[in-house]
């Protein structure tokens, strides 16, 4: 294998795996739990944000980070309630959100997710496929309280659920909304064109507070800005497809500084998929 090919291969593995697969780590992960609203907490650090909804009949978690995080997640839950974790929602299949599934299923916890996310777990040969999947909407009722999972269409992947805590006017979006550059996972049915349409339906829900997939607890206004930035990003790439015939040339000219995202070569490389989507439009 030539040096150039070897480099390219290594880079490709990095690109496809880096966001969703845990890197080896010796220390136990450092996670922090904080209160969002009454009976709702968020655990931040190492992987996607974990929602902790406490009721008098048990706890509902949303997203469970990587396998190595499960014990620490359960310790953090114990620091705010004596109730046991009964259910988990996965917002989507990526390993930084569903990695804890296998260990929790083994403890008798039921995990619920969108049917496309379950199919992605199976097709990508990830461990921890949940037993319960839904098509458009799921409701969990526990201790007289309700949590909904809603599906509005494609975006970050083809199986992103939005978790809705109606009484708290709070949403948990998974990676449909992040406080960083959006990742359109084309290998899992993601679409920038569909993403804003999906978010328009999400924005019709009655909410004020949003727990993003990654980043700090945010407001509805932050989500509206993210949607607008996504549209601007798409329009800029669309214009570049008319000037450049190669995705890497277009990506090199893509203006990103004004969005406030951290941009690295892996993120830029991912936007080549956006070039292809916008060119085929
Ligand atoms: Zn993701």
How would you describe this protein?
With 281 residues, this protein is an alpha/beta fold. The protein has one domain: Metallo-beta-lactamase, Chain A (4-Layer Sandwich), CATH 3.60.15.10. It has 9 helices and 13 strands. A 7-stranded mixed beta sheet has the order 1-2-3-4-5-6-7. A 6-stranded mixed beta sheet has the order 8-9-10-11-12-13. The longest helix is centred in the last third of the chain and has 22 residues. It is globular. The N terminus is likely disordered. The structure holds zinc ion (ZN).
In short:
The protein is α/β, with parallel strands linked by helices and 281 residues long. It has a single domain (3-230), classed as Ribonuclease Z/Hydroxyacylglutathione hydrolase-like (Metallo-beta-lactamase, Chain A, 4-Layer Sandwich). The protein is built from nine helices and 13 strands.
The total number of structural domains is: 1
**Tally of helical runs:** 9
CATH structural architecture: 4-Layer Sandwich
Content of β-strand? 15-25%
The ordered string of helix (H) and strand (E) elements is HEEEEHEHHEHEEEEEHEEHHH
Overall structural class, as computed from helix and strand content, comes to alpha/beta
CATH class: Alpha Beta
Shape: globular
Largest sheet: 7 strands, mixed
């Amino acid at each position: 294998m030539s040096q150039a090919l070897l480099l390219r291969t290594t880079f490709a593995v990095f690109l496809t795996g880096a966001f969703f697969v845990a890197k080896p780590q010796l220390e136990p992960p450092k996670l922090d739990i904080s209160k969002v609203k009454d009976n709702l907490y968020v655990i931040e650090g190492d992987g996607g944000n974990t929602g902790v909804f406490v009721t008098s009949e048990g706890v509902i978690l949303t997203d469970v980070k990587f396998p190595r995080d499960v014990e620490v997640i359960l310790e953090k839950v114990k620091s705010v309630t004596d109730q046991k974790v009964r259910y988990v929602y996965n917002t989507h299949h990526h390993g930084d959100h569903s990695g804890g599934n296998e260990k929790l299923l083994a403890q008798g916890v039921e995990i619920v997710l969108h049917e496309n996310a379950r199919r992605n777990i199976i097709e990508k040969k990830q461990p921890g496929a949940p037993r319960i999947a839904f098509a458009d909407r799921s409701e969990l009722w526990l201790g007289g309280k309700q949590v909904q999972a809603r599906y509005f269409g494609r975006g970050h992947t083809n199986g992103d659920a939005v978790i809705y805590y109606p009484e708290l006017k709070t949403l948990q979006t998974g990676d449909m909304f992040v406080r960083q550059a959006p990742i359109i996972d084309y290998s899992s049915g993601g679409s920038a064109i569909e993403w804003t349409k999906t978010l328009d339906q999400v924005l019709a829900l009655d909410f004020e507070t949003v727990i993003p997939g990654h980043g700090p607890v945010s407001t509805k206004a932050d989500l509206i800005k993210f949607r607008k930035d996504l549209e601007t990003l798409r329009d800029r790439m669309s214009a570049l497809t008319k000037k450049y015939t190669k995705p890497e040339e277009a990506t090199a000219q893509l203006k990103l500084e004004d969005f406030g995202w951290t941009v690295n070569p892996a993120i830029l490389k991912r936007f080549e998929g956006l070039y292809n989507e916008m060119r085929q439009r």
